[in-house]
Amino acid sequence: MQNPTDTEIKDILLNSKRIAVVGLSNNPNRTSYTVSEAMQNAGYTIIPVNPNADKVLGEKAVARLQDIEGHVDIVNVFRRSEFLPEVAKDAVEIGTDVFWAQLGVANAEAYDYLQEQQVTTVMDRCIKVEHTKVT
User: Fold this and answer.
1) For residue 7, with 0-12 CB atoms within 10 Å meaning exposed, 13-18 middle and 19 or more buried, which class applies?
2) Among residues 129, 25, 130, 119, which one has the least CA distance to residue 74?
3) φ, ψ for residue 130, nearest 5 deg
4) What is the number of H-type helices and E-type strands within the chain?
5) Using CA atoms, how far apart are residues 67 and 45, in angstroms rounded to an integer?
6) Which residue segments constitute the domains of the chain, with CATH numbers given?
7) What is the pTM of this model?
8) Distance (Å, rounded) from C-alpha 98 to C-alpha 101?
9) What pLDDT, on a 0 to 100 scale, did the predictor assign at position 130?
10) What is the mean pLDDT of the chain?
């Protein structure tokens, strides 16, 4: 698995506006919450994808990616690695530009599928950390 270069990641972050966050918790102590809050504060639109939440970070949550209206630039995933193939299929179905699995999350099957579908793929990297490098 090969992530995009730092330059490509910078381009992704500078040109993306809407981030769907799969597994975004409404618990402020969870990493998904703090990372998404930081990205929201940096000007990104955050779409929480969590079937067990009504609202997170002031945004209406959806149960699944297919429930989102409009284009999603980045699907950012806070789920365990074994769930990535399923989430990757959903991300391809909605036509996202970038599939981003958070730090500690990677799956070769999902990566290979996303490459076949020509979806830019980042795995095992924190979007918040990468964002601090470009600002």
Assistant:
1) exposed
2) 119
3) -65, -35
4) 5, 7
5) 16
6) 6-134 (3.40.50.720)
7) 0.97
8) 10
9) 97
10) 97
